[in-house]
Amino acid sequence: MQTNIYLLGAPGAGKGTQAQLLVERLQIPQLSTGDMLRAARKEGSELGQRVAAIMDSGQLVPDEVVIELVRLRLARPDHQKGVILDGFPRTVKQAETLDQMFQAGGRTPLTVIAIDVPYDEIRRRLQGRRWCSKCNRTFHVTDNPPPAEHAQDCGVDANSLEIRTDDRPEAVEKRLQAYTQQTAPLIDYYKSRGVFHTVQGMGPIPEIFAAVSACITQ
Ligand code: AP5
Ligand code: MG
Hints:
Strand order of the largest sheet: 2-3-1-4-7
Shape: globular
Distance between the termini: 8 Å
Structural class: alpha/beta
Bound molecules: BIS(adenosine)-5'-pentaphosphate, magnesium ion
């Protein structure tokens, strides 16, 4: 039986944090279009160069670009047991195309989990977010510091973790705007199709994970 989960939420709501915990529990891969685009930038590929300025400004990259990335990724053999979608779809056009891909591929319909966090808390979280480009894990200076073994495993200590280029306050405001205008309409889109759950995203990470897990039947 396939398990397909979509984590919906504003920037900084905790999608990536919860997705990593779900990967460990369910042993199915995370599909984060943001991570894939950042990897393309790090490689310096043509795609990476094309999307860099758009991402840094806090806008969404064109639908066709991310749709193609997702199409290729979903076709991989290791994605046939299921997938945890993080940050895709982000527009109604992306959601409609994903529906078509799921139908054509005979995939089990998505369980949609929206993580709800007030924008002021999001601003606070993104200001303190740190990122390890070696293991791709996300931390927070006070709320979610790296465990002691992280420095040994990756050779990166807490003070050398990176700040995402789109976590500057101006870019964060643009990302919140893009979320409100282009992504929040997906709440009604998925509500009208059933299988929609909302989780309050305020509180300790393990408690949010318990609430997220409770939405999943497999
Ligand atoms: P993407 O990488 O998807 O970024 P995002 O949606 O803006 O979300 P974030 O990754 O910032 O936040 P998150 O919800 O994962 O939170 P996290 O777990 O890190 O996209 C980046 C860009 O790529 C987009 O702006 C766009 O340009 C492009 N893009 C990507 N996908 C696209 C698409 N489909 N279409 C078009 N363009 C696309 O947590 C945040 C912080 O809070 C961390 O520090 C964490 O440690 C901390 N934290 C987490 N949970 C808690 C908690 N419960 N309490 C306290 N702190 C917490
Ligand atoms: Mg993320």
